[in-house]
Amino acid sequence: MSSAQLILAVDQGTTNTKAVLVDRTGAVVARASRPLPISFPQPGWVEQDPQALWESVASAIDELLSAGKVPLAAVGVSNQRESALVWDRKSGEPVGPCVIWQCRRTAEFCEELRRQGLEQEIRERSGLPLDALFSASKIRWLLRLAPDGMARAAAGDLCAGNVDSWLLWKLTGGAVHATDVSNASRTQLMNLQMCRWDAELLRIFDIPESCMPAIGDSSSIFGATAGQGELPAGVPVASLIGDSHAALFGHAAFAPGSVKATYGTGSSLMSPLEVPAISRHGLSTTVAWAAAGKVRYALEGNITNTGGSVQWTSALLGMGGGSREAAALADGVEDSDGVYLVPAFAGLGAPHWDSAARGLLCGLTRGTTAAHVARAAVDSIAYQVRDVFEAMRQDAGIALPALYADGGASRNERLMQLQADLLGCEVIRSGSADLSAIGAAWLAGLAVGYWKSTAELEWLPRETKKYEPRMSAERRELLLAGWSDALRRTRSGA
Asked: From 79's CA, which of 34, 207, 290, 364 has a CA 20 to 30 Å away?
């Protein structure tokens, strides 16, 4: 394999699609990105146009490769997880929207399953708590939206899947309908122990297996590009992986005891496990990745609104909805002056899992300013991450010495310092803004022999910055007590 070859990695996120080229040293040598709109057709409903989603990927790739003929060794894909699509197998046309992971349109159906006493069985089989976050109820909804959807799905005429499956289908010109084990583990339809579709879960959600994609290792050759735009034909698509899992891999956090947090619209904390174990403290058990036939499991906590709550606050304050503007305003004050924002706009995720909880802004006085509200929004990210980190400590039963951090909000210096203070341990921020894409590139490179082992990947240079806790214990306990009180008021049983 030529040393001049590069890995093309696509990171398809909720609000942005990114494409990067990665060289043999692990460095990103070129990048392109496209924004992606989100629609909110009803309260609690969140969706995207599947064609616009694909076009954002194709356009970013075309820009990246337009400078001239780029020798490609492989393509890797990381993607927003749990977002579900259904499309016609013959025409390739979507039969409905892409129902985004944040969407709550299927919450009532999940509550009905809970009333039927199915929650524990679903959790034991899938490793996931019963919630509308995951793909199964979304796929069920989409199949019922399509004309004769259930019959067509049973006949194999419809394809269902997450964003990775849709992108693979488009990249291969409709030749391959597949997913990787990390994305499959987020559908709530995969048996966590067996890493295959679970017949009982498919029955509970009433989804025919014939419409589901084949499951493969995260690092494996799924197919070859069909050739479209600037992307040539015949390049192996050699990795599919959920974006949070890709970020964990990109940190080289391969061993148990490592924890990373990806700070995005929402946030995901993940810690590798040797064997799957059901959480006792409100977390999910999931597949981190699979390579060379070996599956790595992980504990995960999903937080629905972190960076999204800062965007909401910006809009609330008449700043246009830009998180940078709100974060800059927050920097104008030392602290929130006792103001707390609990961004439970559509319920609370891990570790609380209270779908009926609603957002709360409290602690307001006549001295409260817009800057204090903005500060509370930024600080709410650190509080929510701390809640999940503590649940991981309890589940792991061992000390977790540090938190690896990545994602957009991790660039906020004051947030990272507060995070270290609230956790009482070191926070190690990645210097890369492309960590999920790098993780996908690494996995693709392993599949085609571009790199030989994870040990080789660990030696690749990585830029980091460390934050040590420096807040007094008394101050930390005072802040956490205020957060706990605000959280209590938010909960549906309060």
From this structure: 207
How far is the C-alpha of 374 from the C-alpha of 331, rounded, in Å?
Answer: 9
One-letter amino acid for residue 307 of the chain? G
Does residue 227 sit in helix, strand or coil? Answer: strand
The pLDDT of residue 492: 65
Q: What number of H helices and E strands is found in the chain?
A: 16, 23
For residue range 284-310, list pLDDT tens digits in order: 889 999 998 899 999 999 898 898 899
CB 76 within 8 A of CB 441: yes
Q: Provide the 8-state DSSP code for 345.
A: B
* R_g (Cα) of the chain, nearest Å: 22
HSE on the CB side for 344, CA within 13 Å?
25
Please give the structure tokens belonging to residue 155: 């006949």
Positive or negative, the CA dihedral 416, 417, 422, 424 is positive
Q: Token pair of 1, please?
A: 């394999």
User: For strand 267-273 and strand 260-263, is the pairing parallel, antiparallel, or unpaired?
Assistant: antiparallel
Bridge partners of residue 235, in order along the sequence: none
Contact (CB, 8 A) for 69 and 9: no
Domains (ranges, CATH) in the chain? 6-242 (3.30.420.40)
Q: Residue for token digits 């050739």?
A: 227
Size of the chain, expressed as the number of residues it contains: 494
d(CA 396, CA 277): 10
Q: Is-contact 167 55, C-beta < 8 A? A: no
Question: Measured in Å, how far apart are the chain's first and last C-alpha atoms?
Answer: 62
pLDDT of amino acid 232: 94
Sequence-ordered list of residues with C-beta below 8 angstroms from that of 456, at least 6 positions apart, any chain: none
Taking 50 as the pLDDT cut, the residues of the chain under it are none
79 phi, psi to nearest 5 deg: -150, 155
Contacts of 70 (CB under 8 A, 6+ apart): 6, 8, 21, 64
Residue 353: the pLDDT is 83
Facing residues of 191 across strands?
A: 196
Report how far residue 206's alpha carbon sits from residue 140's, in angstroms, rounded to the nearest whole number.
7
**DSSP of 424-443, one letter per residue?**
TSEEEEES-S-HHHHHHHHH
CA 133 – CA 103 distance, rounded (Å): 7
Helix (H, G, I), strand (E, B) or coil at 321: coil
Q: Which residues on neighbouring strands pair with residue 31, listed in sequence order?
A: 20
pLDDT at res. 3: 59
Using a cut of 0.85, tell me whether the model's pTM lies above it.
yes
**Per-residue confidence (pLDDT) for residue 494, from 0 to 100:** 57
Residues 22, 158: Cα–Cα separation, whole Å? 35
Angle, CA of 126, 132 and 136, to the nearest 5°: 50
Say how far apart CA 402 and CA 425 lie, in whole Å.
6
Q: CA 434, 437, 443: angle at the middle one, nearest 5?
A: 140
